[in-house]
Fold:
Amino acid sequence: MKYKLNKSVLIICFALLVIGQGCATTHDHLLGSEEQLKLRSMQTRAFDTTDREKTLRTVIATMQDLGFIIDKADALLGTVSATKLDGYNLRLTVSVRPRGDSQLLVRANAQYNIKAVVAPKPYQDFFNALSKAMFLTANNVD
Amino acid sequence: MNKPKLISIQYFPIILLSVLVGCAGIPSEALKWTSETLKDRQLQTRKFQTNDEEKMLVACAGLLQDLGFSIDESETKLGAMLGTKDRSAVNAGQIAGAVILGILTGAVIPVDKHQKMRASVVTRVTDDGFIIVRVTFQRVVWNTQGQVSKREALTDPKHYQEFFNKLSKAIFLEAHEI
Structure:
């Protein structure tokens, strides 16, 4: 009996530990953890163009192709936010800003339901679609 | 003396559930082109023989208003606007089903109550002097318990055909499929 009780406690503790791993503090949720810095390079690509408006319009068209609705766009800030609803809620914000004299930096942030998307693959997929639409290569940046 | 099993079978659901909680992530095709991409684009897009983007945007905003949408966001410089409206989502068939199920099971079955419908219109001028208009509709539905019961894109071709018919009339131009 004693053995059984200890094992039960152990298993419940294990389960709580696994669930608890996903829990971050309010500070982490608000201001991000150190992981956020690593995210930047996977969320960013450089394109060899300086036409910001055309790039923003291509970003919008790509988002529409991927099933998003454009929630907000601002030409001055160079940002576009969009939402995809398909049984889930996927939000994507893309910003476009100049890099040097000959390039634009495009950065994408995704949120899936109530979680930030931190895996590299979805961002690769997005930039693949975007570079096809732009007829330009998406260059990795450090 | 019985040799104790490592983990009793009854604990597997707890372990499985706790592992899965950390795993639910973005679907692999969410940010990829799929076989539906081109079909959806054709459904949601029409080409108009004008290059007056401002006039087109004004007509689109007017049409959204005619359809009962409020314009929540717009950025004319990028040819984008978003309209939303809140409407009832009550469905007689669903209520009848819930009542029958409720009688059989004795449980209160939630049914759809209200919905927020969203319409996004994006315009762009092509190099050969046409305007491409793309409209997309989505909705979020809440049930009688206040929970989200549906989050979806509205893909019935009828919605899109009627929208473009109305837009053609509003600007006195024919809408061409792409």
User: Anything to note?
Assistant: Helices of chain B lie at 12-21, 37-44, 53-66, 92-105, 157-171.
